[in-house]
Amino acid sequence: MNWRISMTPFLLDNRNSVLVIEDSEELISSREQVRNSNLSMLLNLTDGLLGESVGIQIIATFNTDAKNIDKTLLGKGRLSTIYEFESLALDRTNALLNKLNHQIEVTQPLAIADIFNFEISTNYQPKLKKAVGFRN
Known about the structure:
38% of the residues lie in helices and 6% in strands. It is mostly helical. It has a two-stranded parallel ribbon.
């Protein structure tokens, strides 16, 4: 089913809400190289008749450079804030590790996700399965 058709009744039933779209790279990418009809729907939600009738705010997370975002989303009245989560400064990295009871001092800044998953990220080893399929 087309998400635009199924989304409209949901949005109309939840007016003046906040819609969170995670990992939205494909949705918000520039239309200069590839046609992106889903972006048109997003633009209609943020500005236009549908946007006026549902009154929603959108928070979109993405893992791409802002230069890859379609220019229309960056226009006046559409986008209010871009916040880039960078690695913490080295002193803040070590302070947070200490606060989380990690008895270690690192020599390079870390991203917040790496700090909160420090034991996992430093000791992570994928589990290799020997067989795939059904067990007899």
